[in-house]
Amino acid sequence: LLHCARGGIVDEKALASALAGKKIAGAAIDVFASEPPDSDNPLLAAPNTVFTPHLGASTHEAQAATGAAIANQMVTFFATGEAINAVNIPRFGQHELIKAQPYCELARILGKIMAAAVGSKIKQVSLQLEGDAAELSEVLLLNAALIGILEDSFATPINQVNAVRVADNHGIKCEATKKMRASGFAGLVSLQVSVGRQTRSVAGTLLGGKAPHLVRLDDCALETPLSGHVLITKHDDRPGVVAKIAAQLARQRLNITNMHVGQSSRSGRAAALIGISKPLPDATHKAISRIAEVGEILSIKF
Q1: pLDDT at 216
Q2: b/e map of 157-181 (b: 16 or more CB within 10 Å)?
Q3: Rounded mean pLDDT of 81-109?
Q4: Active site residue 235
Q5: For a disulfide at 262, which of 42, 72, 159, 220, Cβ 3.0-4.6 Å?
């Protein structure tokens, strides 16, 4: 008889009698009706009986093994992101996490752009993965997008464990879809958010499989890196507007590190993403926003 369930399930006196009378060949006991067992418990004198402590992990050997396992799991987590035996996050293998990491960073950056564009009253988040991105876990990438959307709005750190729960608690509906073929790109991540009747969208890809690039803001096509300090504007599509923006940057001795302008074929508007050498001062932000042709200005640090 092997007894490692709950004390009291087995009649200990009857078991001791059965062992003594050889009706049962042997017993291994892990739990007792009274713990520790009383000194007059007949099982303690029964033949062919093995005892182990109720908490088997309390042995010196088990404690050493547990400590080593915990240390190894922490090393694995900080080295690769794999959370072995985590109870509150889906389990992903090391290879899958390494493969997904660049796309997770892209999704997080796209989330930051959407958070800056629409503020904190988001009602719905829709993520679409195409091509190479569709081969990855939509759970990982949706969580990453939500981290980008929520991380600057809460004092509590937003991470892969709590991102969906925080979104749900604030009434944000989330969905993710996949499309195995990506038009014009090896992999594409598209993020759409809704605030009331307004819907904004952004899409990005990886250049060389690593560097996040923006390829679309709403209906404006762009192709520009997403790193460092970035200024994003939506403005009238007419000559001289970008020059006015650049003039304001020059007044503050802000160097333009990269720039790309995309046009909308439908609205007569354009979008510009301008990389700058240091953070945009509030006074310059206000000065650019006062340019008559500029409808929106976002300043983001990636």
Answers
A1: 92
A2: ebebebbeebbeeeebebebeeeee
A3: 84
A4: no
A5: 220
Q: Considering only CA atoms, which of 160, 144, 139 is closest in space to residue 103?
A: 144
- Phi and psi at residue 116, in whole multiples of 5°? -65, -30
Q: Which amino acid is at 133?
A: A
Q: Which of 3, 12, 54, 95 is the catalytic position?
A: 54
Annotated catalytic, 54?
Answer: yes
Considering 6, 91, 95, 290, which one is annotated as catalytic? 6
Query: What's the pLDDT band for 23 if we cut at 50, 70, 90?
Result: very high
DSSP state of 181: -
**CA 131, 132, 134 angle in degrees (round to 5)?**
70
pLDDT tens sequence across 160-201? 889 999 999 999 999 999 998 877 889 999 999 999 888 999
Q: Which of 3, 12, 35, 269 is catalytic?
A: 35
Per-residue tokens: 249: 């940057």
Distances (CA, A) of 200 to 116, 131, 176, 177: 11, 22, 16, 17
**Residue 193 in contact with residue 200, Cβ under 8 Å?**
yes
Using CB atoms within 10 Å of the CB of residue 66, give its burial: 0 to 12 exposed, 13 to 18 middle, 19+ buried: exposed
User: What is the structure's pLDDT at 56?
Assistant: 64
pLDDT at 95: 82
